[in-house]
Amino acid sequence: MRILLRGILASVAILVLNGAYFIWNNNRTTPPPGYEQLSITLENSILWLVDNRQEIIDDRNSFLWRMIQRAGDITGDTRLKTLFADYAQRYLNKHHNNIWRPLFYPKSWVPVRVEDIARLPDYNQYFVYAYTCDRDLAEVPEIAAQNDPAFCDQYPLRPACATHQMMGMLLLKRSHCGDPVRLDSSIKSLQQRIHTQLTWDPRVVDVTMQRVLMLVESGAGDQVKPVWLQQLVDAQRPDGGWSPFMPLIPVGGGRSLGIDTLPRIRSPRSTFHTTAQGVLLFSLLTESIKHSAH
Fold it and tell me: Using only C-alpha atoms, what is the Rg of the chain?
């Protein structure tokens, strides 16, 4: 029994020490990535999109394509603009009643009924309300609840809850929807929550990219620690994309023991979901440095 107890205690000690190391490593002081490194990271990520056009054009995640549209507008990169134009031709221009159309074209209008979006995840319902500022949608309890910056307290196992909520609030701001003072206060509260999540969650996975992106996009880029940016730069795969999986220990055959939401064994693979967010993040960062230099 003593041997078993010692083994358990030793295992716990190893886990605690490893956890402490990862948290320290996640918050260590490091120089910020320079403009050249950020630019190379952005260029490689755009090349990944171009190389994988046939695969990603079939992805109908509207919010990811909104990120590509924004990155193209921010940088003026013709490759990003062409990719978005291809998507728009396929899904938006031929379907003028697409409920996501106003997400891309704020001056457009599409009628939306509550029953049209009832089967969508709650955060997607919130997005639709946020970019339409529809009065009927505002009365839906599941939507109204997300105006509360403490909404995610009830969902501790949803790591992207706060970032999804931030996306919605930034759309509310774009739509000039609601009380602007209260909205700014809610955004500030979410910035603090996301900063805390980044501080104590040492994973470098999809939600890490999303958290850093939301801080930068919401105007809190000064809260982003240089080490978080460097880790995202270092996590870029040789093909230019990013994987939502963080490999830790190779186990052979190109597979590793690692983590995304949970620990598992798999092969890292670049995805559109993580890479689209990376393209927008590094577009914002590089353009910010350009403008500050002038």
Answer: 21
Residue 282 reports pLDDT greater than 50:
yes
> Helix/strand/coil (H, E, C) string of 139-203?
CCHHHHHHHCCCHHHHCCCCCCHHHHHHHHHHHHHHCCCCCHHHHHHHHHHHHHHHHHHHHHCCC
What is the number of domains present in the chain?
A: 1
Question: With a threshold of 0.70, does the pTM exceed it?
Answer: yes
> Per the domain annotation, does 24 fall within a domain?
no
Helix (H) or strand (E) holding 258: strand 255-259
**What SS3 state is found at 128?**
helix
The answer as to whether 199 is a domain residue is yes
pLDDT at 294: 62
Between CA 48 and CA 240 the distance in angstroms is 5
**pLDDT (tens digit, 9 = 90+) per residue, 217-264?**
999 999 999 999 999 999 999 999 999 999 999 998 999 999 998 899
pLDDT tier at 5 (50, 70, 90 boundaries)? Answer: low
* Measured distance CA(172)–CA(107) in Å, rounded: 14
What is each CA distance from 119 to 25, 113, 154, 180, in whole angstroms? Answer: 41, 12, 21, 29
CA distance 179 to 81: 34
Which residues on adjacent β-strands are paired with residue 53?
Answer: none
Amino acid letter at 187?
A: I
Single-letter code of the amino acid located at 13:
A
- Two tokens, residue 44: 């490689």
| Domain extent at residue 76 | 32-293
